[in-house]
Amino acid sequence: RLGLGRGHHVVEVASNDGYLLQYVAARGIPCTGIEPTASTAAAARQRGIETVESFFGAELGLKLAAEGRQADLTAANNVLAHVPDINDFLTGFVHLLKPDGVATFEFPHLSKLIAENQFDTIYHEHFSYLSLTAVNTVFEANGLSVFDVEELPTHGGSLRVHAQRSATGRRAVTAAVANVLDRERAEGARTREYYSGFQQRAEKVKDDFLTFLLHAKRNGKKVVGYGAAAKGNTLMNFAGCRRDLLAFVVDRNPAKQGRFMPGSRIPILAEQALRDARPDYVVILPWNLRAEITRQLQYVREWGGRFVTAVPQLRIS
Q1: Which pLDDT score, from 0 to 100, does residue 124 have?
Q2: What's the pTM value of the predicted model, to 2 decimals?
């Protein structure tokens, strides 16, 4: 779409271990990652990705621009909601972008959070829960303008926003921007009432989930979890769930195995524990990956096991 090649420069903010940029590099496009975490920055360098080990903001954007490292394209995936000073963060992109450069941002869509009771995405790492309405406003206040938006299925429903420098960008605004803004307005995103029933709906999810767990326990059924995800911790702790109701959680990540779910202290085990225990129910905590995980765990059906998700409402299959 942007026609990038060897004469251009791509920068990813919150580049993690370089997983995305390795494909940019493989196309022969010069690229730089910005990642504050030492261990993941080191992993990116092992992939051959030049990585600046720092938090991003106005100061770093200015520094990179002064070094002649402005970007034709920046990518910032699932980080916009994580920054405590969103104004400083966005100003950094104005400095970093070339006059006709493009900045892309992906983040979970507030509209989906409200409509589908996604309260379990509300936890300590997130400072903001963003609609396009809010993003459009804060971008304009910091010298960026949105010219396109895509709706994605990731994280239960996300937006990918394309922006340019307000002063120098010349890309036409697509109809998609007005479509999403109009839909948010029609939903009531600008009104207090839009948010007023969210607590009650979250409590219904919690109550239905606890009712299921208690019923399973009274009937001698074994229930375990799958996926030691952050959203799962929110659900477990909001529901007051402990290992008497959920025996353990399985996760494929070796770094999590042998540890415990924060707060609930439910043990995290390797996947073999699932085959050994042959539970009656497997609660999929990262409900946004339900289809993928149920395909991976089809063998659970062999002993009559069933899959459960609690969000957006209790579902047993």
Answers
A1: 87
A2: 0.89
